[in-house]
């Protein structure tokens, strides 16, 4: 039974690869070091954050974009939403995430954060530790993957320090 299940799984995987090969005739490799890091724009980040665009301009029918974002201690994104949601894979350090109206939560390397479409939120490093994550989001039919809102205030970012 195990061999049968493995054989079926292999056939399903092969069929998926074959179907993908028809719609995408050539793989591409974006070598490490070939993508220029960009500084997190001051309008949408507080503190120092760096973005390594992993894949930001998908080719149809693909819709996903992703970036490796590295936050220095105290750095964070502004409040924002994603029309089709966002997934964060925390790759190193310790950070904070918060959705509008909710409590700030601690995240660590290895954690995965799933943010549903339209949920207002922010994410970044703690005040004492850096944090990096891979941010994955889809581009909607209008060509957007994020709507940036106001900056996170110091009081919202770290209410304990503000007291």
From TrEMBL:
CDD domains: cupin_HNL-like. Residues 68-129 form the Cupin type-2 domain. Residues 1-21 form the signal peptide. InterPro entries: Cupin_2, HNL-like_cupin, RmlC-like_jellyroll, RmlC_Cupin_sf. Keywords: Dioxygenase, Oxidoreductase, Signal. GO terms for molecular function: dioxygenase activity. Gene3D superfamilies: Jelly Rolls (2.60.120.10). It holds the Pfam family Cupin_2. This is Quercetin dioxygenase-like cupin family protein.
């Amino acid at each position: 039974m195990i061999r049968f299940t493995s054989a079926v799984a292999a056939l399903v995987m092969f069929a998926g690869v074959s179907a993908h090969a028809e719609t995408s005739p050539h793989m591409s490799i974006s070598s490490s070091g070939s993508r220029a890091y960009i500084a997190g724009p001051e309008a949408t980040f507080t503190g120092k954050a760096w973005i390594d665009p992993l894949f930001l301009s998908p080719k149809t029918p693909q819709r996903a974009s992703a970036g490796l974002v590295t936050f220095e201690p105290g750095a964070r994104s502004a409040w924002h939403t994603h029309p089709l949601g966002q997934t964060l894979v925390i790759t190193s350090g310790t950070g904070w995430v918060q959705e509008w109206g909710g409590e700030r939560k601690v995240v660590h390397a290895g954690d995965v954060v799933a943010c549903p479409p339209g949920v207002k939120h922010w994410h970044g490093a703690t005040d004492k530790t850096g944090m990096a994550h891979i941010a994955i989001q889809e581009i909607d039919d209008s060509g957007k993957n994020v709507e940036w809102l106001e900056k996170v205030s110091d009081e919202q970012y770290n209410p304990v320090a503000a007291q």
